[in-house]
Amino acid sequence: MTIRAKIVGTGSCVPEKVLTNKDLEQMIDTSDEWITTRTGIKERHIAQEGENNSDLAVGAARRALEMAGIAPADLDLIIVGTLTPDMPMPSVACLVQKELGAKRAGAMDISATCSGFLYSLSVADKFVRCSPDSKVLVIGSEVLSRRTNWQDRTTCVLFADGAGAAVVTGARGENGIVSTHLHADGSVWELLTIKGLGTAHPVDESILEKGWQYIEMQGRDVFKHAVKALESVAFEALDASGWTLEDIDLLIAHQANIRILEHLRERLSLPKDKVFINIHKYGNTSAASIPIALDEANRKGRLKAGDKVLMISFGGGFTWAGVTMKW
Ligand code: ACO
């Protein structure tokens, strides 16, 4: 009998503080109308001083473990997809491991920007299929607000904070992850960057003056690459799974821009109720966006046993990914 890696619990956690488009109107030269029509975002959650990536990751993890009915001590591996770790060392995953008391678990971060959760889920899929009794905690978690230039209206209206988590273990039968697809193209890395505060451009007055500690994005170019890559990986994942467009029960795509989601919906000929959208409430939370959406869909009863779910992501690097699963 087939053994698949199956998600048995989901959770999410976002900071309490909500920043609305109206709030942003008081901070920079923008309008609720511009942000809503260009991006679909109405509000987002922003971490407060002292609230860190690992705190959100732990919050999401606890909820996912509770739903799964699995104790932290039984975890074998913790993987966190993130581009905004608390610090370069240790990893967010190690801080989560400590906080949960997951004594037996290995822990690592994966840096794949907005594809961080699907990259991590893909690693968990391979791990669990090699060792079906193992239990893997997969998290996508970000505090992008601390890498956002709040004077740059072209980016600060987009990015936000939050975390989502999934517990994965082996299950006999057809339900679980069916196929995973990872891609990258580093040749165009300069279109979406945080150039500073790594080892190439360490802390230095000139780096801070240039604003290289912040996210910089060539929005229009990124948009064009994103729609092409997302569409292509969607068809690749469907082909590999032997599914047709009609088979899809729910599409969960990275929540970067409502216009990208609408474009995908049209290209994939999907009705509105088959495309999960929550960007209006959370903004772009990078690696956290898909697991937050997955958790919301799950808790709202949008996922029924056997449903065919397609998840796709695109982000800086560039990286893009697709995962199909039978719920
Ligand atoms: N409020 C008001 N006006 C604004 C704002 C704002 N917040 N931001 C930009 N503008 C202005 C610009 O200055 C420009 O004015 P001009 O015509 O006078 O020069 C005008 O609006 C149009 O600007 P564009 O940047 O061309 O706007 P566009 O329609 O391309 O929308 C956006 C920008 C929303 C960023 C879009 O390009 C986009 O979503 N890109 C893709 C982002 C994405 O998918 N990222 C995925 C990965 S994210 C990650 O990896 C972390």
Shape: globular
Portion in helices: 25-40%
Give the CATH architecture of the largest domain. 3-Layer(aba) Sandwich
What proportion strand? 15-25%
Q: Which strand order does the major sheet show?
A: 1-7-6-4-5
Query: What would you give as the CATH superfamily of the largest domain?
Result: Thiolase/Chalcone synthase
Mean pLDDT: 98
Return the string of H and E elements.
EEHHEHEHEHEHEEEHEHEHHHEE
Short structural summary:
The protein has 327 residues and is α/β, with parallel strands linked by helices. It contains 11 helices and 13 strands.
SSE map:
Layout: E1 3-13, E2 18-20, H1 21-27, H2 32-39, E3 43-45, H3 53-68, E4 77-81, H4 92-100, E5 106-110, H5 116-130, E6 135-143, H6 153-156, E7 161-172, E8 176-184, E9 192-193, H7 205-210, E10 216-217, H8 219-241, E11 250-253, H9 258-267, H10 279-282, H11 289-299, E12 308-315, E13 319-326
Parallel strand pairs: 4-5, 4-6, 11-12
Antiparallel strand pairs: 1-7, 2-3, 6-7, 8-13, 9-10, 12-13
This protein binds acetyl coenzyme *A.
